[in-house]
Amino acid sequence: MAHGSGGSGHRKKHAALIGTLVLMAVLLILAGGMAFAINYVMGSIGEIEEVELLDPETEEFETDEDAGEDSIDPDEIEWAEDLEEVEESTGITNILLIGQDTRTSGTRERSDSMILISINSDTNSVNMISFMRDLYVQIPGYSDNRINASYQFGGAELLDEVIEKNFGVSIDYNVEIDFDGFQDVIDLLGGVDIELTATEASYFRNAGYSVSEGSNHVYGEFALVYARTRYVSTATEANDFGRTERQRAVITSIFNAYKDVSITTKIALIDDILSLVSTDMPSSEILSLLYEAQSMNLSELGSYRIPVDGSYSNQTIRGMMVLVPDLTVNREAVQEMIAGTYED
What we know:
By secondary structure, the protein is of the alpha/beta class. The chain has helices at 9-13, 18-32, 35-44, 149-167, 182-188, 198-206, 220-228, 239-259, 263-274, 283-292, 327-339; strands spanning 46-47, 92-99, 113-120, 125-131, 136-137, 145-146, 173-177, 192-196, 214-218, 277-279, 301-306, 312-317, 320-325. The strands form four sheets. It has a seven-stranded mixed β-sheet, with helices on both faces. Helix 2 (18-32) runs parallel beside helix 8, helix 5 crosses helix 7 and helix 7 packs antiparallel against helix 8 (239-259). It is globular.
């Protein structure tokens, strides 16, 4: 399912790579685990700015040009009851990575990438969960809308509230990031390894890139294009679902490449990337994660997305092509993903 959006072309152009940068920053902190990293972490990361809530009377619906007639009335949707209490697991830190095209002071665009990074200190594991931007959800104080609208309406704080209300996940901290410097970071790493299907390889060869089916060692320019691409399937996901899978594939490849570079390169990467990051995570928590990283098994990263297969319907609402999730099913799936027990 490929959605055409009535939003800005600039937003479309950069939509896919931002979540990659966000997670890259957090993983570099975790993977670094070195004394010299602390000074860079403390000195380079900015603070997330507070934003005023958008007046509900001015809320907008981002319509799709090829949506056609509405398939369902918003009032016909029956949501699962709100959870009386959101389950909070001990030993788990949930960090929401938020990517958008513009970080102008005091303003917000819609979030193009929303990836939950769940760090489990009990199992020494990290799981990442993409929330599809076309998810149709309940937004407290506003009409039901795409999940990415909540970030524009009220910043990270409202987006956290939306994820907790709809999917039963309590967000501990947020990280926001720009996409500047993405290509340079991968080039500084000496490139990354990306696995392409036959369909993907053919698609990118037609676009002028010298790639083949299987493993390819690529540099920043191609990795950027690969992470942005929406209109070709992966081995398991189609179109925009495939785009989020490609994001997570690039993230994993960057992490694997980072582990093998020299200390000098690690220092340069930490300094370059974290300067792009803003967070509400206190210094004490960052230092705690650095310490815990020493004993974590980061060789494999759990990679998931919400909604899960068979748990949503494709609908057109108010001119928007959206994914209406079964909240009961997806709430359970998220908890299993965080625990590392989810099975497709």
